[in-house]
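This entry is set out below.
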Amino acid sequence: MKNNFMTIDHQSSTYEGGCHCGAVRFRIVVNQHLALDCNCSICRKKGFLHLLLPLENFTLLQGAEVLSTYTFNTHIAQHYFCKICGIHSFYRPRSHPQGIDINVRCLDEDMLSKFQIQGFDGANWEENVDQIRESN
């Protein structure tokens, strides 16, 4: 099955981001400026805009000691958040357990205009997950 997700290709770009209080900081390399807006229960409540990346495109610069993890359902996804300010900057997704998923809203400055944002029906995850697995 071919996915229906379009991508915007730019040259590789490097960005930094982190949590609200600044205790957690990371650097990423982006090759594909596509973010997914998921309607599942947790993403809706957090306002998470997904940027799926290979793990090698992610560097945690600081804050490992202040990260805590939230899991639910299958406990495969590892939702990391800052114990100080509570912000979920990134996580290890169930769809891509060997990758990382960055919240575009946690990048420094307002980066939303650099990304194409597409909806993803995560409320019906099992029926739709192959669309995002095929897109990366």
Remarks:
- The helical segments are 41-46, 125-135.
- The first strand starts at residue 9 and ends at 18.
- The chain has two helices and ten strands.
- Residues 35-135 form a domain with the Metal Binding Protein, Guanine Nucleotide Exchange Factor; Chain A fold (CATH 2.170.150.70).
